[in-house]
Amino acid sequence: MASPLEHLLIFAREPVLGQVKTRLAAAIGPTAALATYRELLALTAAAVAAAQIPATLWLAEAPAPPARPPQARPEWPGLPWRVQPPAGSLGERMGHAFAEAFAAGAGRAVIIGTDCPGLTAALLRQAFDQLATHDLVVGPAIDGGYYLLGMKHLHGSLFTNKQWSTATVLADTLADAARLGLRVAHLPTLADVDSARDLDAWRNPA
User: Fold this and answer.
1) Rounded distance, CA 88 to CA 176, Å?
2) Phi, psi dihedral angles at 147 (to 5 degrees)
3) Distance (Å, rounded) from C-alpha 131 to C-alpha 74?
4) Which terminus of the chain is less hemmed in, N or C, by CB atoms within 10 Å?
């Protein structure tokens, strides 16, 4: 079972036609992209449920009325949810979520998205376990970003001066960690599903 000092942060979107997986939708159409996103949501939600770690869902936009916190979202039964700050970069929004978790008493916090079908409950547990002996844990993505980031204290510089959604994010994050003298643990490298090429690689593994 998870320690009460552990907290998982999940960045997600509501599965709404035309508002998810826009890069993928440009290639396969919005309906197919939405179906793919729902599948990725289900895989992520299953991994989170199996890991049995206290978690908060951070939605990119507020759901349509009448939904209000703490009413559970259908794809995430039992999880409390919040809305990400409306302004600022992805890094600023992630930093805000970490700050909220630490302010609420978390001693180890990990953030994930919903684009990585290879993410498992075992990897989530491994991430928190690594924070017992490391300052930072990263789950590298094949595209040069990361599918998971965890820490024991807020390190704000990890969320600034990054070109988000590019191939430089992981390298720049690790460079910041090195400058801060942080001990970094690496999880296995996995693939996100953002493009038609990613989708094909997932559906048809070599």
Assistant:
1) 20
2) -95, -10
3) 31
4) C
Angle at 94 between CA 91 and CA 96, to 5 degrees: 110
Structure tokens at 83: 């809305």
Query: pLDDT by residue (tens digit) across 149-203?
Result: 999 999 999 999 999 989 999 999 999 999 999 999 999 999 999 999 999 999 9
- Considering the entire predicted model, what is its pTM? 0.94
Cα 42 to Cα 53, 59, 114, 117, distances in angstroms: 17, 15, 9, 9
Judge whether residue 48 has pLDDT over 70.
Answer: yes
* Secondary-structure class of domain 6-203 per CATH: alpha beta
Alpha-carbon span 104 to 120, nearest angstrom: 26
Domain boundaries, the chain: 6-203
* DSSP string for residues in 138-182: EEEBTTSSEEEEEESS--GGGGSS--TTSTTHHHHHHHHHHHHT-
Tokens 């939405």 found at: 34
Contact between residue 184 and residue 143 where contact means Cβ atoms under 8 Å apart: no
